What we know:
Elements (H helix, E strand, L loop, with lengths): L9 E3 L18 H15 L1 H6 L22 H4 L20 H25 L5 H20 L7 E3 L9 H31 L1 H5 L1
Helix pairs in contact: 1-5, 1-6, 4-5, 4-6
The structure holds 2-acetamido-2-deoxy-beta-D-glucopyranose (NAG) (4 copies).
The site of one 2-acetamido-2-deoxy-beta-D-glucopyranose (NAG) has 3 residues, from loops.
Amino acid sequence: MKYLVVFIAVVVALATGSPVPSDSQQCAACSPHARSLLSNLSQLMDKEGRAKHPHLFAGFNCTEQTTEMIPFTQTAVVCQPIAPANTSCVNQRNSTFSATECVRNIRDDLWYYNHILKSYIDGVQNAVQDLNLVLMATKTLMSCLQESCPRLSAERTLPEWDVWNGSPFDDRLSLCKALKGFHIRAITMNRALGYITSGDHRKLN
Length: 205
Ligand SMILES: *[C@@H]1O[C@H](CO)[C@@H](O)[C@H](O)[C@H]1NC(C)=O
Ligand SMILES: *[C@@H]1O[C@H](CO)[C@@H](O)[C@H](O)[C@H]1NC(C)=O
Ligand SMILES: *[C@@H]1O[C@H](CO)[C@@H](O)[C@H](O)[C@H]1NC(C)=O
Ligand SMILES: *[C@@H]1O[C@H](CO)[C@@H](O)[C@H](O)[C@H]1NC(C)=O
């Protein structure tokens, strides 16, 4: 299989050499890119989008597949806004919110999805254009976060997330499941960046 990619644990080196802004609200600059990513993903994963690319999801119903999330990031937990003290929110976690921790997990997610999409696209003859757009939007948001957000420059070794099985059918199935996860994650990313941008987390800390 051409795109059977073995993900070696890779050190994400993010030393950018640019001055590190001290305010997490700098991440606000990236919100439009997060929206682009989400709308590109929606375009691909919504009903019409899937109908537009019948061969990408041929042979199975993507809607009915399980959603595969990256097992190595904690974005859903660490990016959860703090609920005001006594709402009856079941998911209420502890009372600290770290914008840095949240953005770092988002950055790691994007890093994984960038690799997944790239390895898939590199392995097929002609990938659908909408998939290329999602990849581009992923890269754009990732570089924006690296450049604009404070304290992200720590190097970090990420475990491999190997989603490809070998057969083209299985790989399309894996792609469907991973994209469903990415779609959900992109919604979380947009919410989280909105929350960080609003500065509300600081009022509560
Ligand atoms: C896929 O499954 C969903 C939910 O079960 C259903 O609503 C939809 O009609 C199915 N699509 C196709 C093309 O069979
Ligand atoms: C929530 O807080 C408000 C005001 O601080 C108080 O009046 C109310 O009783 C509290 N509710 C619960 C469920 O603790
Ligand atoms: C609160 O968050 C910190 C840091 O994320 C974590 O180490 C701790 O276990 C959490 N406590 C609870 C009760 O969830
Ligand atoms: C999709 O992503 C591209 C590249 O990042 C962006 O230029 C474009 O505006 C996005 N499309 C939509 C519908 O947001």
